[in-house]
């Protein structure tokens, strides 16, 4: 009687793609945790606290003008946003106009100011009174800051608003026209409200950028009482030879921008559900 034949060997299966992905992710977590541990135990926490988080200077920042600087930042941002939104809406309508010169002017403006760094615009506006003798910009320094930031913001907002207008279904405009509604009234009552709802998350992002761009105010050499957060933190840091005031100013920027970032994400999620 012949010996029983052996059953064929079952080939070993390798890891599935999902298992490989999990192992790779765990390896990344392990490397990250190791780096954090090394950083924690190798850092000189006493020196870090003394240079970046000195308690006496944190207290001094709040007592020597930080709330006023925070308010100035909000004022500069709000005024620039209003100017940018109004200018951006006009430019967007000019870009969509059937009149050629309007389109050319709007395109030239948008391309020019989107290509220039905001700091160049700040410097140019601060020097305008030297170029034109007797010229004054109202509400100085607010007028200079609002115009410089607003002019740049208008170029970016114009493209956002134009995209929103073009996203409004044309059928609604045609329906309004068929009911005898004048074009200007249809634009104000139907097109623009829907366009602004569509681009609201993008406009909120532009507002966040304006908050950060307001830090360029110190370039034009405003007085101490007109300083925004960066100018205030910079002056106090220079006088104390310590970076704590700048860290405090940076935290104040986060207090402003983080809630705006959360608002943007919620608006985007709401818009996605609506689609």
Q: Helix count?
A: 11
- Regarding quaternary structure, what we see is single chain
Number of domains: 1
Question: What is the CATH superfamily label?
Answer: MetI-like
Output the structural class: mainly alpha
Radius of gyration: 28 Å
Work out the strand percent.
under 5%
Largest sheet: none
CATH architect. name: Orthogonal Bundle
What is the CATH C level class, in words?
Answer: Mainly Alpha
**CATH fold label:** MetI-like fold
Shape: flat
Integer average pLDDT:
85
Residues in helices, as a percent range: over 70%
Outline the secondary-structure elements.
Layout: H1 17-42, H2 45-52, H3 55-63, H4 66-95, H5 100-115, H6 118-131, H7 142-167, H8 170-178, H9 183-213, H10 229-240, H11 244-274
Helix pairs in contact: 4-5, 4-7, 4-9, 4-10, 5-7, 6-7, 7-9, 8-9, 9-11, 10-11
Transmembrane segments: 26-43, 76-96, 108-132, 144-165, 198-223, 243-264
Protein name: Amino acid ABC transporter permease
Main location: membrane
Verbal overview:
By secondary structure, the chain is mainly alpha-helical. It has one domain (56-274): MetI-like (MetI-like fold). The chain is built from 11 helices and no strands. The protein has helices at 17-42, 45-52, 55-63, 66-95, 100-115, 118-131, 142-167, 170-178, 183-213, 229-240, 244-274. The longest helix is centred in the C-terminal third of the chain and has 31 residues, at 183-213. The radius of gyration is 28 Å and the shape is flat.
